[in-house]
Amino acid sequence: MNLIMFGTREDERDAAMVWSEKTGVIVDTVTEILTMETLDKVKGKDGILIQQTGKLNEKIYPALAEMGIKQLATRSAGYDMFDLKLAKENGLFITNVPAYSPNAIAEFAVTASLNMIRHMDLIKKNVEKHDFSWNKAILSREVRSMKIGIVGTGRIGRITGELFAGFGAEILGFDLYPNDEARKFMRYTDTLEELVREVDLISIHMPATDDNFHLFNKELFAQMKDGSFLINTARGTIVKTDDLLEALESNKLAGAALDTYENEHLFVNKDLKGAAIDDEIFNALMAREDIFYTPHIAFYTETAVENLVEGSLDATRNILTTGESAFEIK
């Protein structure tokens, strides 16, 4: 069996080689992502693993089918880079890694929240200018005095809520499928609108779907409490960014921590030092002091990387040997 990993980072390569030695399966790693231009690298391979944020070219699916490829695996929980309809039409199994390390993202969401609540960026800038004064601009709230809203209470959302509860905060949650384990420390609301009207900080933990595209938009922001915070470590398409900018400009929101952005595939995981980014909305985000932006890095821990690589490789091998995997997306 011969597999190929597209978009391989240096930190992933070691985990892939350990898995290869353990299983006897050949794993070739390349840094390029899967495109029509790199499709020739698939020749002679049995299985494909990818790690990329942009959608696959629709021509790739029939091309892979013609090459005898039966599956595509993503080294991520999110799978919005795939067109599931096209994959099915071309006989391609799709797998993801649904639970690689929920703690990694949950811990980052809390860290980003604390950074916003305690004005850490502003304090750092003040200190760099030798402004050591105490002033109202850096006066902070305590987490235990806040109501925290968790939107999406699966593995990651539940752990995020539990961490916030450890600070003594009141936790509210919204999910179409409430989590019984989360009810121990979380009060569910019947609607998302009810949640946003009541909480001081919202942390999003949902997969991207057609139904939640731009779910957080002008209408929903208008219902949020004045001076509230938004944290998004999920998917960029859930938030309509220009509406978020308006909410920040009007002071409806006090700040936002974004680990993801709806057009991030143009630059995430690329070193663009010295290069201009041709994206007016993103540049507007970067110009604001009330935005804490990170490049889709909440997941990025040693444990998560190892689990993502091993989980995706296991899923690929299972599909190729048995025709099924617990990680198959149907």
Automatic annotation (TrEMBL):
Residues 23-328 form the D-isomer specific 2-hydroxyacid dehydrogenase catalytic domain. The keyword NAD applies. One of its GO terms (molecular function) is NAD binding. It comes from the Bacteria. InterPro entries: D-isomer_2_OHA_DH_cat_dom (IPR006139), D-isomer_DH_CS1 (IPR029752), D-isomer_DH_NAD-bd (IPR006140), D-LDH-like (IPR058205), NAD(P)-bd_dom_sf (IPR036291). The keyword Metal-binding does not apply. Keywords: NAD, Oxidoreductase. SUPFAM superfamilies: Formate/glycerate dehydrogenase catalytic domain-like, NAD(P)-binding Rossmann-fold domains. Pfam families: 2-Hacid_dh (PF00389), 2-Hacid_dh_C (PF02826). Residues 112-298 form the D-isomer specific 2-hydroxyacid dehydrogenase NAD-binding domain. Belongs to the D-isomer specific 2-hydroxyacid dehydrogenase family. This is D-lactate dehydrogenase. It comes from Carnobacterium iners. The lineage of its organism: Bacteria, Bacillati, Bacillota, Bacilli, Lactobacillales.
